[in-house]
Amino acid sequence: MSYELVDGRVVTPEGCELNVVRHCNLGCASCSHLSPVFRRSVVDPDVVRADLALLSRFLRARFVKVLGGEPLLHRRLLPILEIIRASGLAPRILVSTNGVLLPRMGADFWSLIDEIQVSVYPGRELSDDDLAHIRRRAERHGVALTVAYYSHFRHSYSERGTEDSRLVGEIFTTCQIAHVWRCHTVYEGHFFRCPQSVFLPRVIGRPNDPWADGLRLEDRPDMAGRLLAYLTSPRPLLACRNCLGSVGKRLPHHQLPRADFRTPQQKRTEELLDREFLAQLATRPDMDDGCVVADPDEWRVRVRERI
Ligand code: SF4
């Protein structure tokens, strides 16, 4: 399924992402949003209101995904959820969280969302009591709950990048984030094809202009056409020179001290690349990346044995 232009709006078959904070209460090695390197940083609800008011005139998404960083760290999350609902950008609101703060969230939070995705990481598991409490809350409020158990991550980026333009093209065309999951992101008056192109330049300083990969949202008659052209462009983004897309080497998930987050990434793209998975994705773009298991018992075995 692809993008369509319907009644002057681009319709995407997936969602639109909104990173409400950059920072996180965990420090996952190779976090694809680079959250461990960011100090406390939250979006202003007034900025969200203005962005979504404009964007919703040109885009229709299946859902708005609220994430970060850890989104439950935003003290004004509830007004933001109300703003999203009122914008009409999408019929559903989904929150993606590590779940650590979820047991503290009240009925007002649960009544504002449609779906919640909890990512569970080794060493940061929720207790059985907390999970049972979350399941009861979700059921009571008619919220669809998904629990994803992560045993692995893939290297998300390279500090040194690559000069091999052909390789950059391959990383871009096999990128599940941009082309399969379509994690398109609205951020401070701009629309980005992926969150990595928002965060990578702000950490590694390349390209020099951190807005270079985004499309500025403007009130102009050809905006929907510009948005469609942006979303379907075959040209890699500038950030793809340092990003590993979906094809970084797989590593057992672990936490790192924040000061050490960038150290394992101080290598060239070629050294952090899983060439076998790249070749597989070239023929099967939606192939499982081997990082998540649905069954907690299988997850425990994988984590214990580092399979
Ligand atoms: S920067 Fe490029 S490779 Fe990385 S997620 Fe975005 S489109 Fe994919």
Automatic annotation (TrEMBL):
InterPro entries named among the record's database cross-references: Aldolase_TIM, Radical_SAM_PqqE_MftC-like, rSAM, rSAM_sf
Radical SAM core domain residues: 19-120
Gene Ontology terms, MF aspect: catalytic activity; iron-sulfur cluster binding; metal ion binding
Record-linked Gene3D superfamilies: Aldolase class I
SUPFAM superfamilies xref list: Radical SAM enzymes
Pfam families: Radical_SAM
Highest taxon in the source lineage: Bacteria
Annotated keywords: Iron, Iron-sulfur, Metal-binding, S-adenosyl-L-methionine
Protein name: Radical SAM core domain-containing protein
Species classification: Bacteria, Bacillati, Actinomycetota, Actinomycetes, Pseudonocardiales
